[in-house]
Amino acid sequence: MDVTWIPGDADLIVVAVVALAALGGAVGFLKLGKGSDSTPTTRPPETRDAGAEASAPASEEPSSPAATATVEAPESPDGRLGRLRSRLSGGLGASLLAIFSRGSLSADDWDELEETLLMADVGASATDEILESLKARLKADPDADPRETLRAVLLEIVDPTLDRELNLSAPASGAHEAIIVVGVNGVGKTTSAGKIARVLVAQGRTVVMGAADTFRAAAADQLETWGAHVGVPVVRSDRDGADPASVAFEAAAKAKEDGTDVVLIDTAGRLQNKAGLMDQLGKIIRVSSKAATPVEVLLVLDATTGQNGMTQAKVFAEAAPVSGIVLTKMDGTAKGGIVVAVQRELGVPVKLIGLGEGADDLAPFDAAEFVDGLLGS
To answer: 283 and 144, same structural domain?
Structure first.
C-alpha cells in the first residue's frame, strides 16, 4: 500500500524554524567576514622585560583582522604636492608676493622682506644669507626679476640635491627593516606613523606597527585605529607604562617571523630630561635591531611651534641618530621657513610634509614644489 506524505501545520513550522536558523548563521558569517567594517581586536603579545635585551619573540602572536582588510589606495604624490602649494601660497607666499608685486625694492621693502622671513621661522642666519645673496645677484643683473631671483636663492638654500627618499629596500626583497618615529607628544607623531604606513602599504610593502608609546594610554588606541584603517597589524602592550623597548622588540620579532617588510615603531615623546630620553630611544633602537634593521629615525616636528620646535629638534637629534624630518601642520600658517631652519640646524633633510588631519594629508617633500608654493608660482 503506497503512502503519500502530506505535511501538516506542525511540520511546516519545523521546516520554517530550521530555515530561519540556517539563514541567521549565514548572516552572522557575512558580518564576521567584513574585516574593513570592524575595529580589530588585536591581542598583543605578552610584554616581557627588555632590560635583559630580549632575544626571542613571544610565544603568543597578535591576531590581525585588519591585515586582511581591503585598503583604499592613497592619493597620488602629485595630488598631495598640488595641495601643499595651494596651502603655502596663503601664508608666507602671500606676504612675499605682496612685496615683489611692487616692482623695484625700496629700503623699506628690504626691511619688510627681512621681517617676513624671520616671522616665517627661516632663522636669523639663513635670513641674512638669503638677503645678501639676493642683493648681490640683483646688483650684478639690475634687469633681473627680483621674484625669480629670490626663487633661485631659496631653491639653492633648501637644496634639491638632498636625498629625501625613505631608505628602504624594494618591496618583498626579504629585508626586515625598521622605521622609528620620534618627537614630543602633540606634534602629530602617532598620526604621522599611521599615514606613513598607509603610503607603504600602497607601495606594495607589508607593514606591522609597534605601539611603543606606552606612557600615553590613548597612543596605542590611536595607532590601532590607524592599523584598522590602513590594514596592518599593531603590536601593543596590555599594560600602561610597560617597557617601550619590549614592545618595539615584539613588533620587530613579529615582522621577522611573518616575513614582513617594514616595522614602524611609534615612540613616547616625553622630555623630562635629555638623559632619560636618550637612554629610552637608544634602547628601543638597540633592542629592535635584533630582529629588524633600523634604516630610518624620523623626527616629527610641528611647523607652527617655531623656535620651540627647533629646541625640541636639537634634543632629539642628540638622543637618536635622526635621518629625516617630518614637518606637520604645514597648512598655510606662514611658517614654511622652518624647513630651511631645521635642515641647517640638524644637517638632515625634510622628507615628508603633513598638510592636515586627512588620511592623505602627508606629502613627500619636493624642494622645487615647496619653493614655488612659498612664492605663489
So the answer is: no
- Distance, in Å, from the CA atom of 120 to the CA atom of 118, rounded to the nearest integer, reads 5
DSSP string, 2-31: -------HHHHHHHHHHHHHHHHHHHHHHH
CB 367 within 8 A of CB 155: yes
CA distance linking residue 166 with residue 235, whole number of Å: 23
Q: Which three cell numbers stand for residue 231?
A: 590594514
Calpha distance 233→251 (Å, rounded): 9
Q: Among 92, 125, 158, give the residue marking a domain's end.
A: 158
Q: Are residues 140 and 200 in the same domain?
A: no
3-state secondary structure of 299: strand
pTM for this predicted structure = 0.77
Instruction: Indicate if 228 and 139 belong to the same structural domain.
Output: no
Beta strands in 237-292 (DSSP E): 262-267
**Same domain flag for 204 and 124:** no
Residues 202 and 114 in one domain: no
Range of the domain at 197: 174-322
Average pLDDT over residues 87-116: 80
Distance CA 60, CA 253 (A): 12
Q: Express each pLDDT in 6-19 by its tens digit.
A: 344 444 333 343 33
CA 136 → CA 9, 129, 377, distances in Å? 101, 11, 23
pLDDT, one tens digit per residue, over 318-358 is 888 999 999 998 765 556 788 888 998 899 999 998 877 77
From residue 292, how far is each of 104, 189, 256, 370, 373 by CA, in Å?
Answer: 57, 21, 7, 33, 38
In this structure, what CATH number is given to the domain that contains residue 242?
3.40.50.300
Question: How many structural domains is the chain composed of?
Answer: 2
Residue 77 pLDDT class (50, 70, 90 cuts): low
CA angle 263, 265, 271 (to 5 degrees): 165
